Amino acid sequence: HPAISVWTVATMPNGDIVTGCSDGVVRVFSRNESRWANEETIRSFETQVANQAIPSNCSELVGDVKKTDLPGPEALERSGSKDGQVIMVKTAAGSVEAHEWSAGEGKWVKVGDVVDAVGQNQKQLHNGKEYDYVFKVDIKDGAPPLSLPYNATENPYSAAQRFLAENELPMEYIDQVVSFIEKNAGGVKIEQQSQQFVDPYTGASRYQANPTSTPSSNHTSYSDPFTGASRYAPVSNHASATPPPPKPANSILPVKSTLSFKQANIPAMENKFKHLNDGLSGDPNTSSLALTPLEFKLFNRSFALMKAKAHSPPKVPAETSAELSQKDIDIIADVLARWPSLQRFPAAGPYHVLTKTQKVALATIAFNYSVVELVGKMDPLAAPAHVSLVTLILNNEKEDNETGYRALVALGNIIYTTKNQGSLSEVAAAAYKPLLTNVATVFPEERVLNLVQEIKALLG
């Protein structure tokens, strides 16, 4: 792509692939020639891609590779080992080009020129892509070290999983690799990124609930660059009239602190919302569904409040100092409920069409509702729908461990609450057990396995 980064990728029912990039352009790729652009447009696109500049660290190094060690143009005469393979080639003029192997076309395609980076925050290149770090990892004696690329705003578990998969290493080493990354990434902390914009499609933090065996009233907030929410930071149990059953050491449940979405592109959200409303008001058939002047004023105030909350530190907007009342929230809910489903995407769509970002956000909302239920403030009539949502996520999520873990904590809170209330039936307990076993199989990492074990202990 002739852009700095690709932010999202989706597939169409007809098999076409759609991409959204940092240059604000949506592009559609198809194998059906009838839907191809004309030759002039395709040539223009390929020229833009070929002229894309990829920064390197200095004039003598390309990432962790010396330019003198790079192959010449003759490397392009050999076929690539797999589709999408990227190699760097030194030209006769001394410049470095990045080429990607296209298995469909059976040739190398130039994807950019590698140039010198500018500024202090220089990146390193690995397989033609930019990273904040490229570590050298010794796997065994006598074997050359392997390169482990990592970005400071990246989920260490994602980087570790990618590293192990690319090098065909066992996944049981994932915690060791994560520990190596956290130790060698220069002390970078997720919360240090909180005042910077984070690409919601490339960054993520890992939810690792803290043990509650040691009571503490100190809450620490960590910024999740993937969803803008805080990292799970459970609080200790306070004394109550009916104390909960004793918990084993290092237990996680219950988790009582909700997560907030404190990082978001709110101006873009506001513009999109107003665009959708304009579309409704401009059509005689839907004009009655558009915002009234009073509702429009309320939504403007809501966006102003969100911008203020997202500011670090939070500030009071000049327009108003008042928080939203329950009546305000009810009006907003009524507006969204009356809008057509096409204007309420993606909530109206099936789970499998959600992006990774949206899945994490959905699991976070499900978790927050479990906290509401935990403190006894949920409408009993809404509880069955909440359980259905959590089990839907756990039954369908097969790829993103962050989504799975947040939904799993939500389920743990639900079971903890219903058991303490004496409303956990044997039928429900029996239904939860195979679901928990499946989650542990899909996401066999330590935090998931520990939580599954604790929830099963609650079920008895």
Provide keyphrases for this structure.
single chain, 460 residues, alpha+beta, Ubiquitin-like (UB roll), 5 domains, three-stranded antiparallel sheet, globular
Give the N-to-C terminal Cα separation. Answer: 54 Å
Q: Decide which structural class fits the backbone.
A: alpha+beta
Described by the principal axes of the CA atoms, the overall outline is globular
> What string gives the helices and strands in order?
EEEHEEEEEEEEEEHHHHHHHHHH
- Helix fraction, binned, reads 25-40%
- The residue-averaged pLDDT reads 75
Strand order of the largest sheet: 4-9-8-7
Our count of domains comes out at: 5
Largest sheet: 4 strands, mixed
Radius of gyration: 25 Å
Total beta-strand segments = 13
Percent strand? 5-15%
Number of helices: 11
GO molecular function, one term: ubiquitin binding
Protein name: Phospholipase A-2-activating protein
Main location: cytoplasm
Domain PFU: 100-195
Structure description:
InterPro entries: ARM-like, PFU, PFU_sf, PUL_dom, WD40/YVTN_repeat-like_dom_sf. Pfam families: PFU, PUL. This is Phospholipase A-2-activating protein. Residues 251-460 form the PUL domain. Residues 204-252 are annotated as: Disordered. By secondary structure, the chain is α+β, with helices and mostly antiparallel strands. The protein has 5 domains: 1-36; 37-130, no CATH class; 132-188, PFU (PLAA family ubiquitin binding), C-terminal domain (Ubiquitin-like (UB roll), Roll); 266-344, no CATH class; 351-459. Helix content is 36%, strand content 13%. The chain has helices spanning 39-50, 156-166, 174-184, 266-281, 293-310, 326-338, 356-374, 383-396, 401-420, 426-442, 446-459; strands at residues 6-11, 17-21, 26-29, 53-56, 61-62, 65-66, 86-90, 96-102, 107-116, 124-126, 129-131, 133-137, 146-150. The strands form 5 sheets. The chain has a 4-stranded mixed β-sheet with strand order 4-9-8-7. Helix 7 runs antiparallel to helix 8 (383-396), helix 7 (356-374) runs parallel beside helix 9 (401-420) and helix 8 (383-396) packs antiparallel against helix 9 (401-420). The longest helix is centred in the last third of the chain and has 20 residues, at 401-420. The protein is globular, with a radius of gyration of 25 Å. It starts with 5 loop residues before the first strand and ends with a helix. Mean pLDDT is 75; it is low at 55-59, 116-120 and 186-249.
